[in-house]
């Protein structure tokens, strides 16, 4: 009788050790995944900081933004900003507003100024930081 109790306690103890080991391994895996996602956003922030708000850099900025939407959300690179805005309307209103601002700035026909590019950069940095 005592032997059965000792064996039962030992089995429970072994099961607990195995469960704890599994949880530790899963925690390490999830921590690595979170770190990779965070680093992915950091790469975009660094790239964004390297783009000077000059008119000749608007296309570079545009490609960075489109690449971000493709990589993070899986949206087609060729969608217009108005189409992206519609898609983001149900996901994130702030990003939807950013897409409308991008569309207005790029395609309204008015001259794009350095302050417009800086405004877009600041807005996009805010969008990335909120994720």
Core attributes:
5 helices, mainly alpha, elongated
Description:
This protein has helices at 2-50, 58-73, 81-89, 93-107, 114-129. It has two domains: 1-36; 51-129, no CATH class. It is built from five helices and no strands. α1 (2-50) runs antiparallel to α5. The longest helix is centred in the N-terminal third of the chain and has 49 residues, at 2-50.
Number of strands: 0
Beta fraction: under 5%
- How many helices? 5
Biggest sheet, open or closed, and with what strands and sense? none
The termini sit apart by 59 Å
What would the average pLDDT be, to the nearest integer? 91
The dominant shape is elongated
Question: Which regions contain 5 or more consecutive residues with pLDDT less than 50?
Answer: none
Number of domains: 2
The rounded Rg comes to 24 Å
Helix and strand pattern = HHHHH
Task: Indicate the percent of residues in helices.
Answer: over 70%
The structure class reads mainly alpha
Short overview:
With 131 residues, the protein is an all-alpha fold. Helices cover 80% and strands 0% of the residues.
Task: Summarize the topology.
Elements: H1 2-50, H2 58-73, H3 81-89, H4 93-107, H5 114-129
């Amino acid at each position: 009788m005592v032997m059965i109790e000792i064996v039962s306690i030992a089995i429970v103890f072994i099961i607990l050790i195995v469960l704890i080991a599994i949880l530790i391994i899963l925690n390490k895996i999830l921590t690595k995944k979170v770190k990779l996602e965070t680093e992915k956003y950091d790469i975009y922030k660094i790239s964004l900081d390297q783009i000077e708000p000059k008119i000749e850099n608007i296309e570079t900025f545009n490609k960075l933004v489109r690449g971000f939407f493709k990589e993070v959300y899986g949206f087609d690179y060729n969608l217009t900003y108005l189409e992206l805005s519609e898609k983001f309307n149900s996901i994130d209103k702030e990003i939807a507003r950013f897409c409308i601002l991008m569309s207005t700035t790029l395609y309204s026909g008015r001259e794009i100024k350095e302050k417009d590019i800086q405004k877009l950069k600041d807005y996009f940095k805010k969008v990335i930081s909120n994720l």
